[in-house]
Amino acid sequence: MLLAEGLTKRYGRREALSGVDLNVPAGRVVGLVGPNGAGKSTLLNLACGLLEPTSGSLRVLGSRPAASAAHLARVGFVAQNTPVYPSFSVADHLRLGARLNPSWDQSLAERRITQVGLDPGQKAGRLSGGQRAQLALTIAAAKRPELLIFDEPAAALDPLARQGFLVSLLEFVAELGASAVLSSHLLGDIEQACDHLIVLCESRIQVAGEVRDLLAAHHRLVAPRGELDRLPAGVEVIRTEHHAQSSNAVVRTGLPPSEIPFRAEPVTLEELVLGYMSRANAPVAEVGAVAGEGVR
């Protein structure tokens, strides 16, 4: 789906992405997570061909982004704030989509508009945020793309509208047999919808992989305070928290829990993501201070 090698994007002196290497197989629903300013929108705009990289390379569905009209037709994109044309009616949007997209599926578009309760004659400028999001999603999906890309489309929606949007997203992915990338800072959305995770922070990929595999490879260790320096080699400390009598650490290791000298518990997706984001923002001197040679 996505293959990046040394992908770098600068805006003047500011580096939005720095040496990104990424290999995401097709057929995944990918959650792209990171704080504001991490480079998520830049990565997605590069994938859509709206930006050109400063250096390195990026291939989407095996080709350079926006390499041709045929390639553009294989990608559906919903930008931030789910932009629509305020003076156009819902039906106008469907007519425009049909004119611009050679593989447009009018029956799919009309069926989805009916399912989510949109009035074809309603001006888009009078729709609620949730209704605009559903309209933008329908237009992107009615292209029948192989890849759907969403740049925080549900961030401004209320919980009910956001839930409806995610349900529709997954239904489209299943119906089209498409891959998808969902950028969000709402970890609940990622946990509900995604089977592949990318954590982007400080312009770099901090961790990426199948959600199931990442959760299996990470543990929360609980140890008496000051004892975590006895971790065996091969245990990578991601984040440490100290309390009065004990210390907790999120670690990554291929070792079975029985070979780790402290109590090892499963981690949540939130703990995993926050661990890598915290490590990315920590001063260099603090990284690896706990487990010595056991830390990469």
UniProtKB/TrEMBL annotation:
InterPro entries: AAA+_ATPase, ABC_transporter-like_ATP-bd, P-loop_NTPase. It comes from the Bacteria. The keyword Transport applies. PANTHER family: ABC TRANSPORTER, ATP-BINDING PROTEIN (PTHR43335). GO terms for molecular function: ATP binding. The keyword Acetylation does not apply. This is ABC transporter ATP-binding protein. Residues 2-227 form the ABC transporter domain. Belongs to the ABC transporter superfamily. Keywords: ATP-binding, Nucleotide-binding, Transport. Gene3D superfamilies: P-loop containing nucleotide triphosphate hydrolases (3.40.50.300).
